[in-house]
Amino acid sequence: MKVLITGGTGGIGFAVAQQFGKEGHQVILADLSPALLHSKQQELVAQGIDALVQTLDLTSQASIDACASLEVDVLVNNAGIQHVARLDDFPPEKWAQLLQVMLTGPAMLSKVLLPGMRQRGFGRIINVGSIHALVASPFKSAYVAAKHGLLGFSKVVALENADFDFTINTICPAYVRTPLVESQIADQCREHGLTEQQVIEQIMLAPMPQKAFIGVDEIAATASFLCQNAARHITAQTLVLDGGWTAR
């Protein structure tokens, strides 16, 4: 299979690329920085993985359209950004950027790749969502809105494409210790007036009975499972890796 991973140079995206690559699939890292893409590609190649790169800006329709010719079997919509602020102080341009990168961009990328999947009779779309697709936290209105929207989008696309071997699902992990989360810790310190350790214990891990960050390997393995024959009838679903958070 050929697997396209957006945000492929980041913590989760790169782990997903390694997982699929080690299983013998060709992976395509998609991200903004050509230099970083090249560096991460070399890392994968050194591990014996068949890796390509695609410069992709999810805020540009032309950049998204350029992916149409890639003949991708599996799309992993992983790219994400964050901005932490009260709605009163939320810059409109930041709101628009978050929705574009994490909802509109994935939708438009899915749109350009679906015809090829249909033509070949096989396709898998895996969205990397978040616990915030199911619950909310203060100061994250745009992020929560985008991730909630991703679930509804996935259900519609599943219904529209149920007539061939196609599935679309969303993996929703609780906090993963990635660079994106590291920056959130600093933002939360500022908004709540807490120390870094207090943010981790009192905000991030407090709702999770297991009190642990989710590993990137868990997300990567879940993505891999969703592409296996045993998961061929799992579609329009939300797979929650939350350590018991939503059981309360």
Over all CA atoms, what is the radius of gyration?
A: 18 Å
N-end to C-end Cα span: 39 Å
Structural class: alpha/beta
Strand content: 15-25%
Order of helices and strands: EHEHEHEHEHEHHHE
Please bin the fraction of helical residues.
40-55%
CATH fold assignment = Rossmann fold
What does this entry look like structurally?
The protein has 248 residues and is an alpha/beta fold. The protein has one domain (2-175, 214-242): NAD(P)-binding Rossmann-like Domain (Rossmann fold, 3-Layer(aba) Sandwich). It is 45% helix and 16% strand. The chain contains 8 helices and 7 strands; from the N terminus they run βαβαβαβαβαβαααβ. The chain has helices spanning 11-22, 34-46, 61-65, 92-120, 141-160, 179-192, 196-204, 216-225; strands at residues 2-6, 26-31, 51-55, 74-77, 122-128, 165-173, 238-241. A 7-stranded parallel β-sheet has the order 3-2-1-4-5-6-7, sandwiched between helices. β2, α2 and β3 (51-55) form a beta-alpha-beta unit. α6 (179-192) crosses α7 (196-204). It starts with a strand and ends in a 7-residue tail after the last strand. It is an enzyme of class 1 (oxidoreductase). It holds the Pfam family adh_short. InterPro entries: 3-OHbutyrate_DH, NAD(P)-bd_dom_sf, Sc_DH/Rdtase_CS, SDR, SDR_fam. Keywords: Oxidoreductase. This is 3-hydroxybutyrate dehydrogenase.
